[in-house]
């Protein structure tokens, strides 16, 4: 409350308290009614408020809290009549005279004496104040069991009399009134039953009178505290006494803490409002609603709780709810739940407020009209958009979603538009609501325009069945009540046909029925407008498929229904009924009501829709479908028939024909008539295209890892022609490439197929349980119950009958190690098993964890790119690379329901996948963890010679790829194309597999577009189509990587990762890990960053602000909470200090913090600067690490500049020959080893390095193999020369292979008009004359050895010459965490993670992301000057400024907005003149203390001086 804004303050009586103007002299200072400090005597001021009083002021919004131990008392009836008599014994606690409380026995009459002193007639004011002070002090420390020995009745009678001003005049003084009310407050807090006594003795009217005519503010505040205590036990009496009006009348004059007490008291009495007291509440609603505009969030939350309780109490009375609406409840509540309100109020309060409006709209027509008038559709739209339906809603049963904001918003929308169904009980209210929207069509129109698009988007993005039903119900009701013209206008911007096709792909009967109802309404009202699109989008097909599928399932059920056993997975949610889910009045009773929709009802309705609207005559007359779809199917059939023909000379004509067919298919993507997702999928185009490009491998049933030269060349040829088509544009003036159109079609198709369920844990709470596997120990993660059963045909093993608990992270190898000694009948095998070293960590929370992927030779489905293998769980890939082939050979084979289990997948993932394949809705609840899963085991047969990746690689490498001028097998995606399969364990029969396969090929095509186009230019030159070497330069055409990101899959992964069980165990369903391994591009960078954090370190929590997710702040950090290690470094010898640090802490999970010798600073700032300094150390010349090093000559003026390696295109390792000096090379290896450790530790601790690696070096870190085209990224001049030499060599080879042998072409070969021999190039690595390429080729470069020269230079530059350095780097990196965890990122993303961002800043961005505090605001003149100066900084000055503020010259990923703590600017106060002072910083808090300089020029001068001269030390400022 601002000073002077109220009619009274703490220094004066209210003017109207002395209406006659008696002119009595003002009392002395120590007796004034209200003072700035408490006016009571020192003895009275000693007594502190009870703990619960403080809790009431500062607690949360839960108004049910009471002081410790009295919760049971607070719920008692007001008139229970068991107050304490005067004769009850003495106290059970007392003060020992020195002020410290001590317990006392029953015989002690201390409390009797104090009460008698208070109740004494004729006592003077001083004696009363002293007695009341003593009583208050004793009560404030009183124990709970004191109530049995306290003279409650006598105390209540005396204290009420004094509070009312009774006595010989003395009682009317401020001190006596204040202390008596305080004593009552303490008494009711310590002994809740005392509330009954004080109410009986007439306290409530006294308190009301003190509040309605406030004479003393201190007394009024104490009365409010007393009401808050009493209302807990006597709510009805307080209500009847007029408490609500009394406490709210002058509520604006009190502080926020007292206002919280007020609304807590009101909330207490509003919990259950008796019918005869309703008017007391209704009259006070306007005052309550005014408090909703308070700036105190806690006050608003408590007022909201009051209103919710009031509406709940009045729910059965239409008149009372109408009265509430007339009092302005709707107008006041609605603004709170706008998107702005969602940011300030707690989610539970927001959902309750939306529920309040839904309950009003359910019964009150006044509320419905008010909500429409206030454009509630816009509010609901904001809620749904902000909540992100696709991944903000848990996939849980209905009963667990009652408090969700979206759930209540959908209820509200369902209540506003009356149901199209006519329920007998609700007919009257439905007709009344219908009359409202019929009388005012604008209501329905505006509401529908706001909400329809977001509902359709929610369903299309993959919301669960519950949300889908809510959305479909609203759409159904809107369509039912809209007139045809209005309906057509509403739906013209939305693809309602695609929406309905998506709904019809669901399994829930409620969703399907709603979809059919919408179809029926649209076909009745607008048949001509939608029949064509229903056919084209697959709605008609889906209705027929529904009937066909149900008929098949019915016959299947009849045939094998008797064979169902307990071991079959339980279908969850089968009996969940959504019929009453969005009925605000009956949601609680929904489970007990009969479902309106049965399976027979659904099928009958579907047949009705088909026979009425989709008859054969009507459908066949619509030819829109057949033209495109039939054409596509014809083309696809041709492709399938001849796809596996070899591309030898006899079939060149066939290849040209197929290329023409492919061209026609691609043209359809750009045709005038749009191809729908349904047509795209139904045509089989994706499968046919995949089969064509893989030369028939894709549709082969048997696994065949062998690859012939003919097959290889056929795939290359087809892929090249397909690539040229993909990069072409139909519109010569721009427009999208065909690649873009195809990717978008594939993404839409992937979105429409929902094959990847989010599996949520149900009420997961960490509880201790015993795990048997991997070893018997206690764990807080649930275990799966497994019963191992011996295969019936197995004779060499013994049985194992006990059910065991298996940790969910356990691999099959771990299970085998446990089971083998127990079932093996070979004693030698048992002994060997026992003696076998245990290579796993038994602690599930260890990092890196213990269980993981085993890539074994025996598995026929091992992918060619096994080094990029899949991570089977969050606990994956641990130390298995070091195991020998012998160790990896399995002893046992495990099966689940007759299907052999893949050993690279955990048992937990296999069980989940089995239930997914069975069509079950999986919820990880108690029933799941209690279920026993039967696993069959048998002896593994000794593996035969396998057709594994080794043979595959040999087959490819044996092909003379130099004929093509390009090493195709080096491209990660190309091996998938050759084999016709993805490198993952996903089910090939799934409809989404075709799409994923094609997207993988297209993403590779896009990522390597520069190399592919360069190779095509090289071919053209070889064949003579290009004659000028300058034309070899390729201009890459690629589409943004964002086109490949699936929003739906990203949302699902985000939701899956935020499941509490996943957060605790890091164990994800199989589809998450397999998709991330095979197609990481489908997920956004942010989602992959979180996945990396979860799987590499076991936590989403990160240490330094990068992309932090506020929803997971409560997750335990790596290692122990707040585990930090400080390390002291020498600023003058950073490399040595870094080596010592990494030697001690590289393998540690602790967060490293740096402090410098002889400096006091420590924490985030010095640590960030350390990583900057070590980055610069590694860039210095003379280390022998990088290309482009310049030797610094002593005495030269340019010595400072040449201290660092000049690498304008980024750092790349310098090649060293195998004959290099061993001692110096060992030192070089140690540096690369240290660099690997530093880079890994920076990523793990989320620190920023200031080191410009080249793109090619990032590729090496990610395990990619480099080729001639990668040299372009770090040495463009060398790359250009090599590519031109290569083109000449290819032209020579082509001429030689020509049947006519064009000798004149070979003799005329020259390099830019000069003979190759005249270039006088020897066989040494360019730029490194000491690096001899080959001892055998000492001749000068010529046409004959040109190809070999190019090969040797490329080999030395990006392969053998840097191989040992990279091995050293990787070995250092792997000491911190496994390097292969980074393979989910691209090289550009890895640079962003490691080196942050250097984004540009505009004024608005700076204002948004900088906090101004302690004397400054965003409009302060010094602040405006600062922001203008920062904008005017050059790149070097900006880097220096950032390092001055944060310790690093670069911003973290996410830019300025991602700085944590936030960049803050405060005013620096100094006794001296501001212009003579310098700015200072606290780098650990990103905190700039800026003096208020007199001018912008002076500020620039001082700031530049500080950021240039203030570097290099950390001291106190």
Major sheet summary line: 5 strands, mixed
**Can you count the helices?**
65
Structural class: mainly alpha
- Give the overall shape: globular
Cα distance, first to last residue? Answer: 36 Å
Average pLDDT reading: 75
Radius of gyration in whole Å, from Cα? Answer: 39 Å
What's the quaternary structure here?
single chain
Strand content: 5-15%
Question: Uncertain runs with pLDDT below 50, 5 residues or more?
Answer: 1-108, 390-403, 556-575, 587-591, 835-887, 944-965, 1102-1122, 1191-1201
Helicity range? 40-55%
Give the neighbour order of strands across the main sheet.
7-6-11-8-9
Key traits:
50% helix; 5% strand; mainly alpha; four-stranded mixed sheet; five-stranded mixed sheet; disordered N terminus; 20 strands; 1517 residues
């Amino acid at each position: 409350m601002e000073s002077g804004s109220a009619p009274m303050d703490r220094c004066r009586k209210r003017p109207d308290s002395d209406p006659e103007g008696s002119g009595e002299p003002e009392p002395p200072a120590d007796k004034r009614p209200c003072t700035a400090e408490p006016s009571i005597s020192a003895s009275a001021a000693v007594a502190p408020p009870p703990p619960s009083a403080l809790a009431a002021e500062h607690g949360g919004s839960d108004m049910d809290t009471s002081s410790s131990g009295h919760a049971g008392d607070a719920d008692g009836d007001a008139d229970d009549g068991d107050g304490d008599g005067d004769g009850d014994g003495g106290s059970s606690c007392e003060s020992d005279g020195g002020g410290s409380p001590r317990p006392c026995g029953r015989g002690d009459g201390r409390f009797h004496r104090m009460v008698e002193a208070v109740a004494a007639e004729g006592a003077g004011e001083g004696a009363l104040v002293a007695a009341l002070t003593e009583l208050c002090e004793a009560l404030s420390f009183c124990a709970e069991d004191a109530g049995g020995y306290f003279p409650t009745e006598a105390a209540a009678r005396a204290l009420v009399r004094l509070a009312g001003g009774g006595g010989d005049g003395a009682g009317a003084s401020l001190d006596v009134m204040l202390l008596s009310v305080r004593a009552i407050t303490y008494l009711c807090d310590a002994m809740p039953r005392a509330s009954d006594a004080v109410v009986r003795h007439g306290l409530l009217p006294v308190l009301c009178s003190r509040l309605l005519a406030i004479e003393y503010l201190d007394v009024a505040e104490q009365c409010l505290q007393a009401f808050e205590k009493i209302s807990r036990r006597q709510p009805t009496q307080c209500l009847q006494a007029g408490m609500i009006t009394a406490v709210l009348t002058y509520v604006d004059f009190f502080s926020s803490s007292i206002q919280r007490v007020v609304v807590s008291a009101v909330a207490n009495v509003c919990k259950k409002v008796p019918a005869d007291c309703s008017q007391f509440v209704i009259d006070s609603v306007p005052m309550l609603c005014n408090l909703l505009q308070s700036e105190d969030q806690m006050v608003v939350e408590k007022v909201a709780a009051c209103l919710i309780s009031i509406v709940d109490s009045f729910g059965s009375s239409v008149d009372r709810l109408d009265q509430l609406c007339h009092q302005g409840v709707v107008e006041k509540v609605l603004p709170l739940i706008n998107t702005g309100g969602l940011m300030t109020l707690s989610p539970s309060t927001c959902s309750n407020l939306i529920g309040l409006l839904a309950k009003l709209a359910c019964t009150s027509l006044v509320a419905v009209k008010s909500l429409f008038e206030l454009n509630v559709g816009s509010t609901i739209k904001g809620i749904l958009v902000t909540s992100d339906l696709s991944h903000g809603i848990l996939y849980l049963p209905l009963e667990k979603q009652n408090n969700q904001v979206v759930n209540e918003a959908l209820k509200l929308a369902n209540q506003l538009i009356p149901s199209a169904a006519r329920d007998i009980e609700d007919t009257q209210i439905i007709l009344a609501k219908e009359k409202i929207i019929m009388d005012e069509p604008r209501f329905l129109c505006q509401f529908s325009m706001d909400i329809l698009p977001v509902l359709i988007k929610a369903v299309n993005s993959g919301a669960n069945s519950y949300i889908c039903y809510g959305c479909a119900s609203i759409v159904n009701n809107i369509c039912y009540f809209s007139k045809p013209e209005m309906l057509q206008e509403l739906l013209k911007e939305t693809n309602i046909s695609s929406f309905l096709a998506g709904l019809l792909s669901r399994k829930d009967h409620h969703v399907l029925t709603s979809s059919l109802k919408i179809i029926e309404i649209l076909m009745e009202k607008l048949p001509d407008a939608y029949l064509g699109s229903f056919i084209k989008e697959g709605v008609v097909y889906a209705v027929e498929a529904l009937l066909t599928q149900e008929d098949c399932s019915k016959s299947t059920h009849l045939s094998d229904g008797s064979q169902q056993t307990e071991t079959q997975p339980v279908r969850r949610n089968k009996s969940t009924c959504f019929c009453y889910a969005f009925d605000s009045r009956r949601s609680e009773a929904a489970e007990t009501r009969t479902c309106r929709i049965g399976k027979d009802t659904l099928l009958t309705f579907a047949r009705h829709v088909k026979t009425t609207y989709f008859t054969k005559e009507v459908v066949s007359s619509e030819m829109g479908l057949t033209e495109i779809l039939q054409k596509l199917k014809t083309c696809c059939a041709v492709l399938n028939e001849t796809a596996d023909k070899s591309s030898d000379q006899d079939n060149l004509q066939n290849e040209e024909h197929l290329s023409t067919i492919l061209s026609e298919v691609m043209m359809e993507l750009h045709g005038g008539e749009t191809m729908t997702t349904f047509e795209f999928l139904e045509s089989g185009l994706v499968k046919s295209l995949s089969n064509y490009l893989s030369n028939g491998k894709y549709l082969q049933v048997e696994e065949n890892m062998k690859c012939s030269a003919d097959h290889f060349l056929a795939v290359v040829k087809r892929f090249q022609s397909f690539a040229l088509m993909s990069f072409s544009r139909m519109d010569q003036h721009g427009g999208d490439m065909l690649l873009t159109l195809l990717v978008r079609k594939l993404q839409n198709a992937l979105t429409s197929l929902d094959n990847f369920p989010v599996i949520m844990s149900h009420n997961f709470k960490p509880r201790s349980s015993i795990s048997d596997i991997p070893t018997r120990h206690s764990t807080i993660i649930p275990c799966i119950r497994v019963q191992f059963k011996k295969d019936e045909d197995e004779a060499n093993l013994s049985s194992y009958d006990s059910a065991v608990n298996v940790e969910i992270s356990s691999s099959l190898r771990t299970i085998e190690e446990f089971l083998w000694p127990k079932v093996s009948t070979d004693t030698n095998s048992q002994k060997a098993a026992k003696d076998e070293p245990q290579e796993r960590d038994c602690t599930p929370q260890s990092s890196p964890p213990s269980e993981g992927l085993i890539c074994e030779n025996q598995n026929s489905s091992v992918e060619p790119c096994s080094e990029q293998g899949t991570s089977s769980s969050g606990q994956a890939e641990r130390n298995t690379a070091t195991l020998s082939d012998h160790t990896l050979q399995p002893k046992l084979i495990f099966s689940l329901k007759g299907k052999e289990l893949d050993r690279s997948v955990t048992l937990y993932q296999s069980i989940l996948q089995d239930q997914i394949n069975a069509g079950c809705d999986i919820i990880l609840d108690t029933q799941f963890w209690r279920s026993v899963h039967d696993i069959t085991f048998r002896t593994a047969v000794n593996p035969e010679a396998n057709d594994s990746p080794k043979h595959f690689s040999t087959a490819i490498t044996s092909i003379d790829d130099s004929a093509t001028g390009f090493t195709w097998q080096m491209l990660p995606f190309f091996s998938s194309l050759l084999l016709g399969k993805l490198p993952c364990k996903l089910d090939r029969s799934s409809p989404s597999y075709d799409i994923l396969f094609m997207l993988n090929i297209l993403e590779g095509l896009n990522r390597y577009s520069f190399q592919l186009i360069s190779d095509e230019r090289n071919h053209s030159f070889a064949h003579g189509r290009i004659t000028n070497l300058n034309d070899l330069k390729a201009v890459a055409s690629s589409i943004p990587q964002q086109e490949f990101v699936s929003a739906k899959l990203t949302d699902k992964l985000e939701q899956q990762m935020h499941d509490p069980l996943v957060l605790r165990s890091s164990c994800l369903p199989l589809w998450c890990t397999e998709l991330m391994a095979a197609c990481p591009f489908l997920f956004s960078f942010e989602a992959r960053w979180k996945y990396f954090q979860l799987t590499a370190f076991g936590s989403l929590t990160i240490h330094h602000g990068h992309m932090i997710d506020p929803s997971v702040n409560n997750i335990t950090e790596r290692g122990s909470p707040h585990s930090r290690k400080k390390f002291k470094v020498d600023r003058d010898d950073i490399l040595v200090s870094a080596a010592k640090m990494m030697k001690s802490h590289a393998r540690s999970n602790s967060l490293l913090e740096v402090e410098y010798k002889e400096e006091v600073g420590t924490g985030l700032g010095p640590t960030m600067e350390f990583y900057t300094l070590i980055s610069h150390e590694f860039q210095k010349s003379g280390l022998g690490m990088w290309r482009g090093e310049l030797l610094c000559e002593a005495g030269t003026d340019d010595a400072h500049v040449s201290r660092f390696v000049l690498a304008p295109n980024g750092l790349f390792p310098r090649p060293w020959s195998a004959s290099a000096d061993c001692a110096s090379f060992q030192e070089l290896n140690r540096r690369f080893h240290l660099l690997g450790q530093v880079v890994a530790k920076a990523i793990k601790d989320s620190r920023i390095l200031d080191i410009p690696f080249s793109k090619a070096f990032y590729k090496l870190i990610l395990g990619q193999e480099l080729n001639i085209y990668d040299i372009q990224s770090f040495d463009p001049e060398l790359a250009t020369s090599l590519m031109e030499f290569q083109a000449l060599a290819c032209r020579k080879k082509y001429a030689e292979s020509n049947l006519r042998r064009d000798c004149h072409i070979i003799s005329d070969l020259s390099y830019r008009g000069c003979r190759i021999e005249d270039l006088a190039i020897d066989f040494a690595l360019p730029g490194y004359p000491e690096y001899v390429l080959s001892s055998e080729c000492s001749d000068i470069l010529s046409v004959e050895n040109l190809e070999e020269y190019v090969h040797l230079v490329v080999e030395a530059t990006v392969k053998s010459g840097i191989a040992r350095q990279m091995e050293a780097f990787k070995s250092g990196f792997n000491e911190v965490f496994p390097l292969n965890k980074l393979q989910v990122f691209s090289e550009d993303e890895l640079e962003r993670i490691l080196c942050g961002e250097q984004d540009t800043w505009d004024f608005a961005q700076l204002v948004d992301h900088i906090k101004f505090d302690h004397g400054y605001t965003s409009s302060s003149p010094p602040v405006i000057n600062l922001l203008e100066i920062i904008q005017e900084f050059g790149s070097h000055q900006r880097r220096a400024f950032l390092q001055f503020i944060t310790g690093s010259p670069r911003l973290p990923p996410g830019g300025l907005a991602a700085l944590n703590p936030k960049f803050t600017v405060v005013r620096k106060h100094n006794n001296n003149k501001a212009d003579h002072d310098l700015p200072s910083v606290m780098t650990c808090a990103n905190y700039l203390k800026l003096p208020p300089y007199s001018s912008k020029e002076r500020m620039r001068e001082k700031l530049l001086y500080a950021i240039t001269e203030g570097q290099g030390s950390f001291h106190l400022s």
